[in-house]
Design a protein that fits this description.
By secondary structure, this protein is α/β, with parallel strands linked by helices. The strands form six sheets. The protein has a six-stranded mixed β-sheet with strand order 12-16-17-15-14-13. The protein has five domains: 168 residues, Up-down Bundle (Four Helix Bundle (Hemerythrin (Met), subunit A)), CATH 1.20.120; 105 residues; 160 residues, Histidine kinase-like ATPase, C-terminal domain (Heat Shock Protein 90, 2-Layer Sandwich); 148 residues, CheA-289, Domain 4 (OB fold (Dihydrolipoamide Acetyltransferase, E2P), Beta Barrel), CATH 2.40.50; 120 residues, Rossmann fold (3-Layer(aba) Sandwich), CATH 3.40.50. The radius of gyration is 37 Å and the shape is flat.
Length: 762
Amino acid sequence: MTPEQMRDASLLELFSMEAEAQTLVLSAGLLALERDPTQADHLESCMRAAHSLKGAARIVGVDAGVSVAHVMEDCLVSAQEGRLYLRPEHIDALLQGTDLLMRIATPDNNPEPAEIEAYGVLMALLLDPMAAPAPVTAPVAPVMAELQLEAPAPKAEAPIPVAEPQPAEPPRKAKRTTENGERVLRVTAERLNSLLDLSSKSLVETLRLKPHLATMQRLKRMQNNGLRALENLNVHLKEHALSLEAQEALEVARRLLAESQQLLAEKNAELDEFAWQASQRAQVLYDTALACRMRPFADVLTGQERMVRDLGRSLGKQVRLEIEGEKTQVDRDVLEKLEAPLTHLLRNAVDHGIESPEQRLLAGKPAEGLIRLRASHQAGLLVLELSDDGNGVDLEKVRRSIIERQLSPAETAAQLSEEELLTFLFLPGFSLRNTVTEVSGRGVGLDAVQHMVRQVRGAVVLEQVAGEGSRFHLEVPLTLSVVRSLVVEVGDEAYAFPLAHIERMCDLEPADIVQVEGRQHFWHEGRHVGLVAASQLLQRPAGQNSQQTLKVVVIREREAIYGVAVERFIGERTLVVLPLDERLGKVQDISAGALLDDGSVVLIVDVEDMLRSVDKLLNTGRLERIARQGNQAVEAARKRILVVDDSLTVRELQRKLLLNRGYDVAVAVDGMDGWNALRSEDFDLLITDIDMPRMDGIELVSLLRRDNRLQSLPVMVVSYKDREEDRRRGLDAGADYYLAKASFHDDALLDAVVELIGGARA
């Protein structure tokens, strides 16, 4: 590439950057002018932006950019001078010109000459409908022709003079500056990520000095003890006659020990000062590197206001987007991942939320709908609230759709609360639209939003008020690089719970643990909270807990709250997030890894995934009780029975009878759940009903008898069917005992269990 070509390429790059900045000014100003066409400051800013782009295009020799910017400038000058009142068709055309300018500045997306010429014709007609346009040498592109309005714009009060050539602006230097005049240097994202990675590791490395300092302090105490012991020895030896040489040797030893103690104290102080300064500087370095990655929330809003406006017009709606907190600082990576979810939510609000002007007027609302987006910082999180003043969610329509899609039985769907109904909107493929359009109907919007928000360890909640509108509440971390966590020990391994999901930490006395509906709970803030063992969730061996109290971490995700019992609290730490190897895929209940101060590995818990694991264990009846102190061996020695029945009453009755007799009992709600439990855990007996949804008892027993591992497991069928043919059918399938519920009583069940597997103890 010749020097001239390099210079031209550099200028074109500068022009592209200039166009990107100025088109943002144009878009924002034109949208404001659409609401109030007489705002002088917005007219001035738009005119200056068009003028700057015209001059820049002339400098780099982009004639198409000069032509488009020139006619836009003429239109805006006419509006400034009062010769033209900007109507919606003018705003449409000016926004179209803004898009053209951005395409012209993008090397791989340049418009055809016919589009440029057609745009000139369109603007000429809008500025002076009576003026004859210049002959067009190339056919007008259809996309341009569609934007020409059938109704002519009102005549200008005076003919528009031909604009005189503007003096070319001096070329901009390569040194870019901010509004405050500070120099700006362009850095690649990879280099910035590398800088942040190095600074975060530096922060961790300085923390490794702490245990070294603690060791040095312990050595200092040992020297103090040694010096005191030597002094005591000197006192005792004075009672004995020592040679002069021995006394001198003793004195030399005491003096050397005192000198080494003094030297160690000095070096300890110096090392402590160095560690403090290194820690402070590493923190400043990390904060500065992180600040380089932080961008204003406004960066993700580029084009969103325009998108809302254009989508509303295409749907025949009047919609306005209000934004608060544009200057809220967020990590660049988080911003990039937020763009798609926000676009989905904004399109959803325009399409599903805001009503047509006629419907709004009938409801006593202004014709123009309002969508409000607010961003703020809260406890280390970016909190986004996106609300609209539309019609809210038709809950009965959601209920009907749930039944039609067979997502829930009609009886169950009729009892679903508002919160439960709204969660169905986040399911894949769920939509309230019967027909698919370019805007909606495919059922991928809210599902995609939830998926992308979870990718950044965030959460999204939907609330609504019928007839008044909906509100989405999003919480995402400000940065994905660091997480404040509580580090605990589970099965002799370290795990970290992000502080954002921790409700509290507590030590539970044995008397604090109560049984509610057969499960362990404790009292927390006016409610019973379920208690689960982290060792079961994380599939770690349960440690021998000799302490009188139980260490519990109370975790919460929206309305779900549980207490997770751990072996030991290690402490609060700032962890630099290290992503897991992609080859591992999604590791259950784990989101990432990190390094502790001593260089050991800690796994960061995915709290939302862990809560889903708890629900799964509860629903399948496989949640284990937490054994206290030395009871682990006793718990393990009890025989386990799986009760499978779709009736909650029967299931609970059998479970309580067996528990009272000393057996360890798990429950399943139907044959499918029972089969999953049998394949994943060990049992001494299966008790099953026959008539159940998804998989009945006969099919379950047949599957069990065909399985090499399970075929010898004793099986009891307990059913309402008491005919001989029903009994024979169950026994032929492989059951060892058949008990009719009609003749069911406590002793009959327990006697049958004892007959099959004996007493509760192994």
